[in-house]
Amino acid sequence: MVDVSQHELVPEHTVLDEETLDGVLADYDIDRTELPKIKYKDPALPDNAEIGDVVEIVRDSRTTDEAVVYRLVIE
Amino acid sequence: TEFDVTDGVHDVIEDTELPRRLKDEVLATAEERGVTKSQANEIATAVEAQYLDTRVDPLDPVGTVSAQSIGEPGTQMTMNTFHYAGVAEMDVTQGLPRLIELVDARKTPDTPVMEVYLEDEYAEERERAHEVVWKIEATKILALGDISTNVADMVVRIDLNEDTLQERWPRVDSTTQIAGEVAETIEGNLGVTVTQDGTILEFGPSEPSYRELLQLVEQLRDIVFKGIEEVSRVVIRREETERGEEFVLYTEGSAFKKALKIEGVDATRTSCNNIHEVHKTLGIEAAREAIINETMTTLEEQGLDDVNIRHLMLVADIMTNDGTIESIGRHGISGNKNSVLARAAFEVTVNHLLDAAIHGESDDLDGVIENVIVGKPVRLGTGDVDLRMGATQTSD
Asked: Subunit structure of this entry (chain A)?
Protein backbone atom coordinates (compact mmCIF):
# COMPACT_ATOMS: atom_id res chain seq x y z
CA MET A 1 0.00 0.00 0.00
CA VAL A 2 1.08 3.56 -0.66
CA ASP A 3 1.89 5.55 2.47
CA VAL A 4 -0.25 8.63 1.91
CA SER A 5 1.39 10.66 4.67
CA GLN A 6 4.69 10.65 2.78
CA HIS A 7 3.28 12.60 -0.16
CA GLU A 8 4.41 16.20 -0.36
CA LEU A 9 0.83 17.45 -0.69
CA VAL A 10 -0.20 15.87 2.60
CA PRO A 11 0.54 17.84 5.78
CA GLU A 12 0.97 16.20 9.17
CA HIS A 13 -2.28 15.12 10.88
CA THR A 14 -2.36 14.27 14.60
CA VAL A 15 -5.27 13.56 16.90
CA LEU A 16 -5.67 16.27 19.52
CA ASP A 17 -6.20 15.27 23.16
CA GLU A 18 -9.26 16.69 24.92
CA GLU A 19 -7.28 18.97 27.19
CA THR A 20 -5.42 20.77 24.40
CA LEU A 21 -8.63 20.90 22.41
CA ASP A 22 -10.46 22.73 25.21
CA GLY A 23 -7.69 25.32 25.19
CA VAL A 24 -7.94 25.76 21.43
CA LEU A 25 -11.72 26.11 21.47
CA ALA A 26 -11.48 28.64 24.32
CA ASP A 27 -8.87 30.61 22.36
CA TYR A 28 -11.08 30.87 19.29
CA ASP A 29 -14.25 31.11 21.42
CA ILE A 30 -16.09 28.56 19.28
CA ASP A 31 -17.80 25.20 19.60
CA ARG A 32 -16.09 22.15 18.07
CA THR A 33 -18.85 21.77 15.49
CA GLU A 34 -17.86 25.16 14.09
CA LEU A 35 -14.42 23.83 13.08
CA PRO A 36 -13.76 22.76 9.50
CA LYS A 37 -14.52 19.07 8.97
CA ILE A 38 -12.66 16.00 7.79
CA LYS A 39 -14.39 12.77 6.77
CA TYR A 40 -13.75 9.62 8.80
CA LYS A 41 -12.80 7.77 5.61
CA ASP A 42 -10.22 10.41 4.62
CA PRO A 43 -7.04 8.58 3.54
CA ALA A 44 -4.76 10.99 5.41
CA LEU A 45 -6.54 10.57 8.76
CA PRO A 46 -4.42 8.85 11.44
CA ASP A 47 -5.59 5.32 12.34
CA ASN A 48 -6.41 6.18 15.94
CA ALA A 49 -8.85 8.96 15.01
CA GLU A 50 -12.51 8.41 15.84
CA ILE A 51 -15.64 10.29 14.85
CA GLY A 52 -15.96 13.33 17.09
CA ASP A 53 -12.20 13.70 17.53
CA VAL A 54 -10.39 16.81 16.40
CA VAL A 55 -7.21 16.49 14.33
CA GLU A 56 -4.47 19.06 14.37
CA ILE A 57 -2.99 19.76 10.95
CA VAL A 58 0.37 21.48 10.64
CA ARG A 59 0.67 22.89 7.17
CA ASP A 60 3.81 24.17 5.57
CA SER A 61 2.30 27.56 4.91
CA ARG A 62 2.92 29.71 1.88
CA THR A 63 2.63 32.94 3.85
CA THR A 64 4.20 32.06 7.18
CA ASP A 65 6.46 29.20 8.25
CA GLU A 66 3.83 26.89 9.67
CA ALA A 67 0.08 27.15 9.89
CA VAL A 68 -1.79 25.09 12.46
CA VAL A 69 -5.41 24.31 11.68
CA TYR A 70 -7.98 21.96 13.16
CA ARG A 71 -10.59 19.71 11.62
CA LEU A 72 -13.42 17.82 13.30
CA VAL A 73 -13.75 14.16 12.27
CA ILE A 74 -17.26 13.47 11.00
CA GLU A 75 -19.36 10.58 9.67
CA THR B 1 21.31 30.99 14.70
CA GLU B 2 22.14 30.54 11.00
CA PHE B 3 22.59 34.26 10.47
CA ASP B 4 25.90 35.96 11.07
CA VAL B 5 24.73 38.98 13.06
CA THR B 6 25.56 40.26 16.52
CA ASP B 7 23.40 39.14 19.44
CA GLY B 8 22.07 42.68 19.83
CA VAL B 9 20.84 42.86 16.25
CA HIS B 10 19.46 39.33 16.50
CA ASP B 11 17.45 40.09 19.65
CA VAL B 12 16.06 43.32 18.26
CA ILE B 13 14.69 41.52 15.22
CA GLU B 14 13.50 38.48 17.17
CA ASP B 15 11.55 40.69 19.57
CA THR B 16 9.26 42.01 16.84
CA GLU B 17 5.80 40.67 16.15
CA LEU B 18 6.79 39.55 12.67
CA PRO B 19 6.13 35.98 11.48
CA ARG B 20 9.10 33.62 11.10
CA ARG B 21 9.54 34.09 7.36
CA LEU B 22 9.68 37.87 7.58
CA LYS B 23 12.07 37.72 10.53
CA ASP B 24 14.38 35.52 8.49
CA GLU B 25 14.19 37.92 5.59
CA VAL B 26 15.07 40.87 7.81
CA LEU B 27 17.88 38.87 9.44
CA ALA B 28 19.29 37.93 6.05
CA THR B 29 19.28 41.55 4.93
CA ALA B 30 20.87 42.67 8.22
CA GLU B 31 23.61 40.10 7.69
CA GLU B 32 24.19 41.14 4.10
CA ARG B 33 24.39 44.85 4.85
CA GLY B 34 26.16 44.49 8.18
CA VAL B 35 23.91 46.84 10.12
CA THR B 36 24.53 48.14 13.63
CA LYS B 37 22.15 47.57 16.53
CA SER B 38 20.54 51.00 16.34
CA GLN B 39 20.08 50.68 12.58
CA ALA B 40 18.60 47.23 13.10
CA ASN B 41 16.21 48.67 15.62
CA GLU B 42 15.09 51.30 13.15
CA ILE B 43 14.63 48.74 10.37
CA ALA B 44 12.79 46.29 12.63
CA THR B 45 10.42 48.97 13.87
CA ALA B 46 9.66 50.17 10.34
CA VAL B 47 9.09 46.64 9.00
CA GLU B 48 6.92 45.75 11.98
CA ALA B 49 4.82 48.89 11.57
CA GLN B 50 4.36 48.17 7.88
CA TYR B 51 3.45 44.56 8.66
CA LEU B 52 0.90 45.44 11.31
CA ASP B 53 -0.56 48.11 9.05
CA THR B 54 -1.08 45.73 6.13
CA ARG B 55 -2.76 43.02 8.19
CA VAL B 56 -6.44 42.45 7.55
CA ASP B 57 -8.55 44.55 9.91
CA PRO B 58 -11.26 42.97 12.03
CA LEU B 59 -14.59 42.81 10.15
CA ASP B 60 -12.87 43.28 6.79
CA PRO B 61 -14.84 41.58 3.98
CA VAL B 62 -12.02 39.25 2.89
CA GLY B 63 -14.30 37.15 0.70
CA THR B 64 -15.42 40.12 -1.35
CA VAL B 65 -11.85 41.34 -1.72
CA SER B 66 -10.77 37.88 -2.88
CA ALA B 67 -13.64 37.66 -5.36
CA GLN B 68 -12.65 40.98 -6.89
CA SER B 69 -8.96 40.19 -6.86
CA ILE B 70 -9.46 36.95 -8.78
CA GLY B 71 -12.32 38.25 -10.90
CA GLU B 72 -10.59 41.28 -12.34
CA PRO B 73 -7.54 39.43 -13.72
CA GLY B 74 -10.01 36.79 -14.88
CA THR B 75 -11.41 39.32 -17.36
CA GLN B 76 -7.97 39.53 -18.97
CA MET B 77 -7.68 35.80 -19.47
CA THR B 78 -8.06 34.24 -22.85
CA MET B 79 -11.57 32.96 -23.33
CA ASN B 80 -10.76 29.83 -25.24
CA THR B 81 -7.29 28.47 -25.24
CA PHE B 82 -6.57 24.97 -26.27
CA HIS B 83 -2.96 24.88 -27.01
CA TYR B 84 0.07 22.87 -26.83
CA ALA B 85 1.86 24.85 -24.21
CA GLY B 86 3.67 24.13 -21.01
CA VAL B 87 4.27 20.47 -21.64
CA ALA B 88 5.82 19.18 -24.86
CA GLU B 89 3.26 18.34 -27.54
CA MET B 90 0.48 17.82 -25.01
CA ASP B 91 -2.93 19.36 -25.08
CA VAL B 92 -3.83 20.91 -21.73
CA THR B 93 -6.81 23.13 -20.99
CA GLN B 94 -5.65 26.52 -19.78
CA GLY B 95 -6.88 29.97 -18.97
CA LEU B 96 -10.46 30.81 -18.12
CA PRO B 97 -11.95 27.41 -19.02
CA ARG B 98 -9.50 25.73 -16.62
CA LEU B 99 -10.19 28.24 -13.83
CA ILE B 100 -13.94 27.74 -14.21
CA GLU B 101 -13.47 23.98 -14.20
CA LEU B 102 -11.54 24.24 -10.92
CA VAL B 103 -13.96 26.44 -8.99
CA ASP B 104 -16.91 24.48 -10.37
CA ALA B 105 -15.20 21.35 -8.99
CA ARG B 106 -15.98 19.48 -12.19
CA LYS B 107 -15.87 15.69 -11.64
CA THR B 108 -13.35 15.15 -14.43
CA PRO B 109 -11.28 17.89 -16.01
CA ASP B 110 -11.44 18.43 -19.76
CA THR B 111 -7.87 17.22 -20.17
CA PRO B 112 -6.85 15.03 -17.24
CA VAL B 113 -3.08 14.74 -16.92
CA MET B 114 -0.61 13.37 -14.39
CA GLU B 115 2.90 14.52 -13.69
CA VAL B 116 4.74 11.34 -12.75
CA TYR B 117 8.07 11.56 -10.96
CA LEU B 118 10.27 8.49 -10.80
CA GLU B 119 12.28 6.86 -8.05
CA ASP B 120 16.01 7.48 -8.25
CA GLU B 121 17.04 4.29 -10.07
CA TYR B 122 14.42 4.88 -12.77
CA ALA B 123 14.82 8.63 -13.10
CA GLU B 124 18.36 8.68 -14.41
CA GLU B 125 18.37 6.42 -17.46
CA ARG B 126 16.00 6.69 -20.37
CA GLU B 127 15.80 2.87 -20.64
CA ARG B 128 14.66 2.43 -17.06
CA ALA B 129 12.25 5.34 -17.32
CA HIS B 130 10.73 3.68 -20.37
CA GLU B 131 10.04 0.56 -18.31
CA VAL B 132 7.75 2.68 -16.15
CA VAL B 133 6.19 4.25 -19.24
CA TRP B 134 5.01 0.83 -20.44
CA LYS B 135 3.57 0.11 -16.98
CA ILE B 136 1.49 3.27 -17.22
CA GLU B 137 0.52 3.72 -20.86
CA ALA B 138 -2.33 1.44 -21.91
CA THR B 139 -1.17 -1.08 -24.49
CA LYS B 140 -3.92 -2.23 -26.84
CA ILE B 141 -3.76 -4.84 -29.57
CA LEU B 142 -3.36 -2.36 -32.42
CA ALA B 143 -0.03 -1.28 -30.97
CA LEU B 144 1.23 -4.86 -30.81
CA GLY B 145 0.50 -6.26 -34.25
CA ASP B 146 -1.81 -6.64 -37.23
CA ILE B 147 -5.25 -8.17 -37.04
CA SER B 148 -6.78 -9.95 -39.99
CA THR B 149 -10.12 -11.74 -40.13
CA ASN B 150 -10.56 -14.81 -42.22
CA VAL B 151 -14.28 -15.07 -42.90
CA ALA B 152 -14.03 -18.40 -44.73
CA ASP B 153 -12.46 -20.20 -41.74
CA MET B 154 -14.12 -18.03 -39.11
CA VAL B 155 -10.82 -17.10 -37.44
CA VAL B 156 -9.21 -13.90 -36.25
CA ARG B 157 -5.45 -13.90 -36.84
CA ILE B 158 -3.04 -11.63 -35.00
CA ASP B 159 0.52 -11.20 -36.27
CA LEU B 160 2.37 -9.84 -33.27
CA ASN B 161 5.35 -7.60 -33.94
CA GLU B 162 8.37 -9.09 -32.18
CA ASP B 163 10.21 -5.79 -31.76
CA THR B 164 7.21 -4.15 -30.14
CA LEU B 165 6.72 -7.10 -27.79
CA GLN B 166 10.33 -7.01 -26.70
CA GLU B 167 10.16 -3.24 -26.23
CA ARG B 168 7.01 -3.28 -24.10
CA TRP B 169 7.93 -6.32 -22.01
CA PRO B 170 11.65 -5.60 -21.41
CA ARG B 171 11.78 -7.96 -18.43
CA VAL B 172 10.74 -11.09 -20.40
CA ASP B 173 13.34 -12.72 -22.65
CA SER B 174 11.49 -14.71 -25.27
CA THR B 175 8.87 -13.22 -27.55
CA THR B 176 7.05 -16.57 -27.63
CA GLN B 177 6.56 -16.30 -23.89
CA ILE B 178 5.21 -12.76 -24.24
CA ALA B 179 2.88 -13.89 -27.02
CA GLY B 180 1.70 -16.59 -24.63
CA GLU B 181 0.83 -13.97 -22.04
CA VAL B 182 -1.02 -11.95 -24.66
CA ALA B 183 -2.95 -15.08 -25.66
CA GLU B 184 -3.89 -15.71 -22.04
CA THR B 185 -5.19 -12.16 -21.66
CA ILE B 186 -7.34 -12.59 -24.75
CA GLU B 187 -8.70 -15.91 -23.48
CA GLY B 188 -9.49 -14.37 -20.12
CA ASN B 189 -11.28 -11.37 -21.61
CA LEU B 190 -13.15 -12.87 -24.53
CA GLY B 191 -13.75 -16.42 -23.33
CA VAL B 192 -12.31 -18.01 -26.48
CA THR B 193 -9.57 -20.59 -27.05
CA VAL B 194 -6.48 -19.09 -28.62
CA THR B 195 -4.03 -21.19 -30.61
CA GLN B 196 -0.48 -19.94 -30.62
CA ASP B 197 2.26 -20.51 -33.21
CA GLY B 198 5.32 -18.47 -32.26
CA THR B 199 4.08 -14.89 -32.31
CA ILE B 200 1.01 -15.65 -34.39
CA LEU B 201 -2.26 -15.99 -32.51
CA GLU B 202 -5.51 -17.34 -33.90
CA PHE B 203 -8.97 -17.70 -32.44
CA GLY B 204 -12.60 -17.69 -33.50
CA PRO B 205 -16.16 -17.92 -32.19
CA SER B 206 -17.28 -21.29 -30.81
CA GLU B 207 -20.11 -21.51 -33.35
CA PRO B 208 -19.54 -20.22 -36.89
CA SER B 209 -21.23 -16.82 -36.89
CA TYR B 210 -20.22 -13.84 -38.97
CA ARG B 211 -21.70 -11.39 -36.47
CA GLU B 212 -19.92 -12.92 -33.53
CA LEU B 213 -16.62 -12.91 -35.39
CA LEU B 214 -16.88 -9.16 -35.99
CA GLN B 215 -17.94 -8.63 -32.40
CA LEU B 216 -14.85 -10.48 -31.17
CA VAL B 217 -12.64 -8.19 -33.23
CA GLU B 218 -14.43 -5.16 -31.78
CA GLN B 219 -13.90 -6.41 -28.22
CA LEU B 220 -10.31 -7.36 -28.95
CA ARG B 221 -9.49 -3.75 -29.78
CA ASP B 222 -10.60 -2.63 -26.31
CA ILE B 223 -8.54 -5.08 -24.26
CA VAL B 224 -5.77 -3.49 -22.21
CA PHE B 225 -2.78 -5.82 -22.21
CA LYS B 226 -0.49 -3.71 -20.11
CA GLY B 227 -0.60 -0.36 -18.33
CA ILE B 228 -3.48 1.72 -16.99
CA GLU B 229 -6.67 1.77 -19.02
CA GLU B 230 -7.31 5.50 -18.49
CA VAL B 231 -3.90 6.62 -19.76
CA SER B 232 -3.79 6.86 -23.52
CA ARG B 233 -0.37 8.43 -23.94
CA VAL B 234 2.78 9.15 -21.97
CA VAL B 235 5.35 11.78 -22.82
CA ILE B 236 8.80 11.43 -21.34
CA ARG B 237 10.92 14.51 -20.68
CA ARG B 238 14.27 15.22 -19.15
CA GLU B 239 13.90 18.04 -16.67
CA GLU B 240 15.81 20.12 -14.20
CA THR B 241 14.22 19.62 -10.75
CA GLU B 242 15.40 20.22 -7.21
CA ARG B 243 16.97 16.75 -7.34
CA GLY B 244 19.00 17.63 -10.43
CA GLU B 245 18.44 16.37 -13.96
CA GLU B 246 15.87 13.61 -14.12
CA PHE B 247 13.24 12.04 -16.35
CA VAL B 248 9.66 13.06 -15.67
CA LEU B 249 6.60 11.48 -17.28
CA TYR B 250 3.52 13.38 -18.40
CA THR B 251 0.40 11.37 -19.07
CA GLU B 252 -2.68 12.05 -21.12
CA GLY B 253 -5.51 10.70 -19.00
CA SER B 254 -5.27 10.08 -15.29
CA ALA B 255 -5.66 7.34 -12.70
CA PHE B 256 -3.85 8.77 -9.72
CA LYS B 257 -4.45 5.94 -7.26
CA LYS B 258 -3.29 3.26 -9.69
CA ALA B 259 -0.28 5.28 -10.80
CA LEU B 260 1.02 5.74 -7.24
CA LYS B 261 1.09 1.97 -6.72
CA ILE B 262 3.25 1.27 -9.76
CA GLU B 263 6.81 0.20 -9.06
CA GLY B 264 9.29 2.92 -9.95
CA VAL B 265 6.80 5.76 -9.46
CA ASP B 266 7.78 8.23 -6.75
CA ALA B 267 4.62 8.25 -4.61
CA THR B 268 5.74 11.34 -2.71
CA ARG B 269 5.96 13.81 -5.59
CA THR B 270 3.71 12.50 -8.37
CA SER B 271 0.66 14.68 -8.90
CA CYS B 272 -2.54 14.86 -10.88
CA ASN B 273 -4.65 17.75 -12.16
CA ASN B 274 -7.96 16.17 -11.13
CA ILE B 275 -8.69 17.57 -7.66
CA HIS B 276 -11.27 14.85 -7.00
CA GLU B 277 -8.73 12.10 -7.61
CA VAL B 278 -6.29 13.87 -5.29
CA HIS B 279 -9.06 14.09 -2.68
CA LYS B 280 -9.92 10.40 -2.96
CA THR B 281 -6.30 9.27 -2.89
CA LEU B 282 -4.59 11.68 -0.49
CA GLY B 283 -7.40 13.28 1.47
CA ILE B 284 -9.00 16.68 1.90
CA GLU B 285 -5.88 18.58 2.96
CA ALA B 286 -4.01 17.45 -0.17
CA ALA B 287 -7.02 18.46 -2.23
CA ARG B 288 -6.83 21.92 -0.70
CA GLU B 289 -3.15 22.18 -1.64
CA ALA B 290 -3.95 20.94 -5.14
CA ILE B 291 -6.66 23.58 -5.62
CA ILE B 292 -4.24 26.33 -4.60
CA ASN B 293 -1.47 24.98 -6.85
CA GLU B 294 -3.73 24.49 -9.85
CA THR B 295 -5.46 27.88 -9.64
CA MET B 296 -2.16 29.68 -9.10
CA THR B 297 -0.45 27.94 -12.06
CA THR B 298 -3.45 28.69 -14.25
CA LEU B 299 -3.15 32.38 -13.41
CA GLU B 300 0.64 32.37 -13.75
CA GLU B 301 0.50 30.79 -17.19
CA GLN B 302 -1.60 33.74 -18.28
CA GLY B 303 0.89 36.20 -16.85
CA LEU B 304 -1.39 37.08 -13.95
CA ASP B 305 1.03 36.05 -11.24
CA ASP B 306 0.49 39.23 -9.22
CA VAL B 307 -2.73 37.82 -7.75
CA ASN B 308 -1.94 37.32 -4.08
CA ILE B 309 -1.84 33.67 -3.06
CA ARG B 310 -4.00 34.45 0.01
CA HIS B 311 -7.04 34.93 -2.19
CA LEU B 312 -6.61 31.47 -3.70
CA MET B 313 -5.97 30.01 -0.26
CA LEU B 314 -9.27 31.46 0.92
CA VAL B 315 -11.09 29.96 -2.06
CA ALA B 316 -9.50 26.55 -1.38
CA ASP B 317 -10.34 26.79 2.33
CA ILE B 318 -13.99 27.46 1.58
CA MET B 319 -14.20 24.72 -1.03
CA THR B 320 -12.78 22.10 1.37
CA ASN B 321 -14.37 23.36 4.58
CA ASP B 322 -16.87 20.54 5.10
CA GLY B 323 -14.46 17.68 4.38
CA THR B 324 -15.50 17.23 0.75
CA ILE B 325 -14.87 19.37 -2.31
CA GLU B 326 -17.72 21.80 -2.81
CA SER B 327 -18.04 23.94 -5.90
CA ILE B 328 -18.44 27.69 -5.82
CA GLY B 329 -21.80 28.44 -7.36
CA ARG B 330 -25.43 27.49 -7.45
CA HIS B 331 -24.87 23.85 -6.58
CA GLY B 332 -22.19 24.48 -3.97
CA ILE B 333 -21.33 27.29 -1.60
CA SER B 334 -23.75 29.96 -2.87
CA GLY B 335 -26.59 27.47 -3.14
CA ASN B 336 -26.24 26.48 0.51
CA LYS B 337 -26.43 29.94 1.99
CA ASN B 338 -28.87 30.28 4.82
CA SER B 339 -30.46 33.44 3.58
CA VAL B 340 -33.34 33.19 1.10
CA LEU B 341 -32.69 36.65 -0.29
CA ALA B 342 -28.98 35.94 -0.80
CA ARG B 343 -29.76 32.77 -2.74
CA ALA B 344 -32.47 34.50 -4.75
CA ALA B 345 -30.08 37.31 -5.65
CA PHE B 346 -27.55 34.87 -7.05
CA GLU B 347 -29.37 32.76 -9.62
CA VAL B 348 -32.87 31.51 -10.50
CA THR B 349 -34.55 34.15 -8.34
CA VAL B 350 -38.18 33.13 -8.73
CA ASN B 351 -37.61 29.47 -7.85
CA HIS B 352 -35.87 30.38 -4.62
CA LEU B 353 -38.52 32.85 -3.55
CA LEU B 354 -41.30 30.41 -4.44
CA ASP B 355 -39.69 27.54 -2.52
CA ALA B 356 -39.08 29.80 0.46
CA ALA B 357 -42.72 30.93 0.43
CA ILE B 358 -43.97 27.33 0.26
CA HIS B 359 -41.79 26.25 3.16
CA GLY B 360 -42.41 29.37 5.20
CA GLU B 361 -38.72 30.29 5.50
CA SER B 362 -37.57 33.41 7.32
CA ASP B 363 -34.48 35.53 6.76
CA ASP B 364 -32.36 36.80 9.65
CA LEU B 365 -30.67 39.50 7.53
CA ASP B 366 -27.18 38.57 8.72
CA GLY B 367 -25.34 38.68 5.41
CA VAL B 368 -24.29 41.40 3.00
CA ILE B 369 -26.70 40.78 0.13
CA GLU B 370 -29.84 40.60 2.27
CA ASN B 371 -29.05 43.94 3.86
CA VAL B 372 -28.32 45.61 0.53
CA ILE B 373 -31.70 44.36 -0.72
CA VAL B 374 -33.65 45.74 2.25
CA GLY B 375 -31.55 48.92 2.43
CA LYS B 376 -30.02 48.40 5.85
CA PRO B 377 -26.35 49.03 6.69
CA VAL B 378 -24.24 45.99 5.87
CA ARG B 379 -22.86 44.29 8.96
CA LEU B 380 -19.23 44.59 7.91
CA GLY B 381 -16.39 46.87 8.89
CA THR B 382 -17.73 49.93 10.69
CA GLY B 383 -21.27 48.75 9.92
CA ASP B 384 -20.90 45.99 12.49
CA VAL B 385 -19.78 48.21 15.35
CA ASP B 386 -22.30 49.70 17.72
CA LEU B 387 -21.23 52.58 19.90
CA ARG B 388 -22.74 53.12 23.30
CA MET B 389 -22.13 55.82 25.91
CA GLY B 390 -20.32 54.70 29.02
CA ALA B 391 -22.73 54.21 31.92
CA THR B 392 -20.62 55.96 34.53
CA GLN B 393 -20.56 59.71 34.93
CA THR B 394 -17.76 61.71 36.39
CA SER B 395 -18.54 64.77 38.42
CA ASP B 396 -16.24 67.75 38.55
From this structure: Part of the RNA polymerase complex.
- HSE of B263, CA atoms in CB hemisphere, 13 A: 2
Walk me through the domains of chain A, giving residue ranges and CATH numbers.
4-74 (3.90.940.20)
CB contact set of A72 (below 8 Å; sequence gap of 6+): A32, A33, A35, A36, A37, A38, A52, A53, A54
Residue A2 Cα distances to A41, B122, B143, angstroms: 16, 18, 31
**What is the rounded CA–CA span in Å between residue B41 and residue B9?**
7
Nearest to B268 among A7, A59, A65 (CB): A7
Residues in chain B closer than 8 A to A55 (CB atoms): none
Taking the CA of residue B214 and the nearest CA in chain A, the distance in Å comes to: 41
d(CA A61, CA B6): 29
Inter-chain residue contact A2 with B260, CB threshold 8 Å: yes
pTM: 0.85
* Tens digit of each residue's pLDDT (9 = 90 or more) over B238-267: 888 888 888 899 999 889 998 888 888 888
Gap between the Cα atoms of B215 and B222, Å rounded: 11
Answer whether A65 touches B (CB < 8 Å). yes
Pick the closest to residue B277 from B296, B297, B294 (CA basis). B294
Alpha-carbon distance of B159 to B141, in angstroms, equals 10
Edge to edge, what strands does the sheet with A66-74 contain? A12-15, A54-60, A66-74, A37-39
Q: Are B72 and B299 in contact (CB under 8 A)?
A: no
Mean pLDDT of B55-74: 90
**Cβ contacts of B278 on chain A, cutoff 8 Å:** 9
- What ipTM describes this predicted complex? 0.94
